[in-house]
Design goal:
This protein has 48 residues and is an all-alpha fold. It has a domain at 24-48. 92% of the residues lie in helices and 0% in strands. The protein has helices at 2-37, 40-47.
């Protein structure tokens, strides 16, 4: 019984870690994309 409890607790912690990691990656990616879209130097470069 103790092994199952430890496994479930570890699985919950691991899933929470992965969810947090992926959410941070997605938020950072969106912020970087928005920053690149608003960069005037890149807009001029892409329009040439």
């Amino acid at each position: 019984m103790s092994n199952i409890t430890m496994f479930v607790i570890g699985l919950i912690i691991f899933c929470a870690y992965l969810f947090t990691l992926f959410s941070i990656i997605v938020k950072s990616n969106n912020a970087q994309q928005k920053e690149l879209e608003n960069d005037p130097e890149l807009k001029n470069y892409n329009n040439k």
